[in-house]
Amino acid sequence: MDLFESTTTGAHGTPSPAPGAPLAVRMRPASLDEVAGQEHLLAPGSPLRRLVEPAGPGQRRAAPGSVILWGPPGTGKTTLAYVVAATSGRRFVELSAVTAGVRDVRAVVEDARRRLAAGGEETVLFVDEVHRFSKSQQDALLPSVENRWVTLVAATTENPSFSVNSPLLSRSLLLTLQPLGTEDVRALVRRAVADERGLAGEVRLAQDAEEHLLRLAGGDARKALTILEAAAGSVLSAGPVVSAGSDDGAPPLVDLAAVERAIDVAAVRYDRDGDQHYDVISAFIKSVRGSDVDASLHYLARMIAAGEDPRFIARRIIISAAEDVGLADPSALQTAVAAAQAVAMIGMPEARIVLAEAVVHLATAPKSNAAYLGIDAALADVRAGRAGSVPAHLRDAHYAGAKGLGHGKGYRYAHDAPHAVASQAYLPEELAGARYYEPSDRGFERSVGERLARVREILARADGTPPVR
Fold first, then answer.
1. 376 within some domain
2. DSSP secondary structure, 311-329, as one string
3. pLDDT (0 to 100) of residue 108
C-alpha cells in the first residue's frame, strides 16, 4: 500500500517537504493565491474556494464533500489537494490507486470516521489516479462520501465519464483543470529559481534555456521544475566554474547546454510563433503528401519535442487525409478523425503514439487530390456566375402550387432504374457536360473511376424511358 499520512506539521495536516525533496514538491503552493492558472476554478465563492475556506464558529462547512479533479499531467491536481488540506487545517491522507487495495481504502475511511466522531477532526483523502481503481475499490469510497466522513479529492487524467463509477461520479463535484499556459509555467520556473523553498537564487537561468525548458515542458509544471532542478544540479555540481559571459561573483548560469544535458536531448530549433513553426509544419505536410513516411515521422517528432499543441497536429492530419489521400484510401480520414478524438481524450505523452499511427497510415496510403480539385473547380464556376437555374424536374414539388409550375415533372426515381442510375439531367442547362471530379487510377479510387465512367454514360443517354415517379 502506498499510504501517506502527515503527522509532522500540526494544524495544517500536510507534510513539510524535507530538504532533499524534489523541487516540484518543495514548490507546492501554500495557498490558492500561489496556484498557477485555473482561474476558472479560483473565483471567489467557487466550490474550490468553499472547500478551502474554513467555516465560521458554529457553522458547517458549505462545501462539496467530494471533488474529482480531471486534467492533463502537471496541471496541479495533487497541488490542489495539498492546498485544500494545508489551508483548511484538516488532516491529509494520500492513497495511490496504483498500489492501494480495498482493504487499504476501508482502513483509511474507518480511521477517519473514528477521528471525526471522537474529536471532530476532518480528513482530506487524496486518491491519485482514481481511474485505476477497480469498481469494488471505488464502491468502497461511497459510504465515506455519502456520510462525509472524509473530504475526498480524487485526481484523474482520463475522462471520469468513462473511468469513474456512476454512483461515485454522481456524488462528486467534477472540476476540469485546463493545461497551463506558457506564461503560467514561466512564472513557476522563475519563482522556483528565486524562492527560498526552491533554488534560493543559487543559479541564474539564461533566456534561451528558459524558452527551451518551457517548450519541452509542454504545459506540465512538474516536468518543467524537474528539468530545471536537474539542469541547476549539473551546474552547481561543476563547482565555481561558470558559463561564458557570467559576471564575477554572480550565481552560476544555467544555459541552454545545461538544459540539454539535463534532459539528454538536443535542443529543437523551433519557434511556435515564428518561421520555424511554419517551416516544420509545411515540411511535415509535404512529406506525408510525398509518401516519405520516415521524413513524416521526423517532422512529427520535431513538433512533439518542441511542445507543439498535439491538437493542432491532429487537425493538420485530418486536412491532409482529405486533401492528399482522399478517396484513394477513404479509411485514412476515419483514422485521422479517430486520432484527433483520441488525442483530446488521453493527452500527451501517450498521444504521440496515436499521432504516429495516423501519420504512418497517411504517408503510406495511395494519394489522390481529385475531390479537393473537384470542389475547387465547382466553386470557381459558381463564383464566376456559372450557376444557372435548377432543372424543373429536380425542384421541390411538395408544396401547394408547385406542380402547377411544372416542378418535379418528368423526374425519374433513381432506385427504380437499372443499377439505380436514371438517365436524366442533374446539372443546370448552362453547365451541361461539366466535369469537376476526375478520379485517379490509384487505390480505391481506381474502382470509383471505372464505375463513374459507366454512370456518366447512362446519365448522358436520352433513351426516352417514361418517368416512374
1. no
2. HHHHHHHHHHIIIIIGGGS
3. 87
